[in-house]
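Would you mind writing out a protein's amino acid sequence and the numbers that encode its backbone to help me picture the idea?
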Amino acid sequence: MSGLARVEPVITGPPARVMICDDSATIRSAIARMLESDRGIQVVAKVSNGRMAIEELKRTKVDVLVLDIEMPVLDGMAALPLLLQEDPGLRVIMASTLTTRGADIAMRALRMGAADYVPKPSTIGATTDDRFRVEIISKVKGLARLRQRAALPVRPAVPSMTRPAPVLPPKLLAIGSSTGGPQALFTLIQALGRSVTVPIILTQHMPATFTPILAEHITRLGGLPCAEAKDGEPLLPGQIYLAPGDKHLIIEHGDGTAAGRSAGKDFGYRGTSGNVMARARLSTDPPENFCRPAVDPMLRSAAIVCGGRVLVTMLTGMGHDGLAGTRQVVEAGGAAVAQDEATSVVWGMPGAIAQAGLCHAVLPLPRIAPKLLDMLRGAAR
């Protein structure tokens, strides 16, 4: 992550039971101390390779496993399917190095069933970094809550206060996500298939090393193609434009202005003379909400350029990035859909817009894609 708000999720009920699997005893101890500094977490096992993790899992109840990738005897990628076979409800967080290879392995692990990843510190001292501490604690507690909730009887959802859908269908789909986001994105974008006929812009809080790999893995899902946005390129329908790590994604009118000639009323993909009507711009402006890329600048610019005809989708994430931008979209005539608390790793970003009364719908992750497709067709009112 390029930045994190200093907010940690609250977990109720029993502590999160965690196993740490890493071949470095020093790393195991450092991560254990960090996790156990939170009263909502209990480290129940520490092992040095995947084979030991499988054996430990047979005798110890574990909610979340922090799994290193490179280990002797049995590495993390080889152990992952065996661990999930032993306990299908286990939530696995892959500990990946901040390298292109590490990013690719982490994304492959997510597609194989891992729940999330953390960029592994390159040095022992880095495990005391506050951003790393906040990230790993929030992911462990959020995933443990999902694991514990899955074991409870299903309760009817409490209806949320929602807004009516706009009269005009959206011309742009904008997605924001953070903690737990990559796995949620895989689920959502695969379910959307190839039916989206507007451009999709996406900001996921993620390091620069990881964003091109995330784009590649989204494309491999077989739906819409995804790539890091390039400065100045046109936004075309049926394409996903991902904010590169450490750069804000801004939307400009095709003439190079944020507001355009008519506050977005002429927004389209190409004008009658063939001119591009909207472009991506990349910005190194200061972080917002402790993040770069951040969701807010993306949504603010989209609201202006599209004349409000934007459909916001807010997925799991810590903090409130995207709240101000969503408010601007909705006030301009757009709509927003948020992931519900029950399926979010951290109900920070989606919870912020839901609790602010900005949403057309607050839905479990599997139900979001059908709702978006209806709204993009103008079928939802």
User: Anything to note?
Assistant: Confidence is low (pLDDT under 50) at residues 1-11, 259-266, 271-275. The chain is about 35% helix and 20% strand. The CA atoms of residues 208 and 245 lie 4 Å apart. The first strand starts at residue 16 and ends at 21.
